[in-house]
# Entry
Amino acid sequence: MRIEEAYAYLCVHDTQAALAFYARAFGASEKFRLVEPSGRIGHAEMAFGPNTVMLCDEFPEFGMHSARALGATPVTVHLHVDDADAMIANAVQAGATLEREASDAFYGERSGVVRCPFGHRWLIGHSIEDVTPEEMQRRYTALFGAG
# Structure
């Protein structure tokens, strides 16, 4: 038994608008969608580079609520890109809210955070150095004034 792939599956309050936003903000492209006769999108898939992100409208009758309906999200989607600053700027220009400007981090990545209009957090970063887990831990410990 083995895992072949893992996908982020985002429930949003307006999948059609989310598909358009993610295309503008991140350059993602729609693969397909399944639409109920009522117009509610039951499933859609987008290609984020070689990766797939799945989306759907809310299904409160099945306990599926969007981040907007909940007023928060405990999940952050991490996009590893070639130029974090440019991708963050593009996302903000497309309508995302900047939560944290890009900066160099102890774990060897330059990254920042945006929140999309659908309530999800996106950590966007690119590699700036290779850091071993041991060095990462040393730097992380130093952030807390220990060691």
Observations:
- The mean pLDDT is 95.
- The chain has four helices and eight strands.
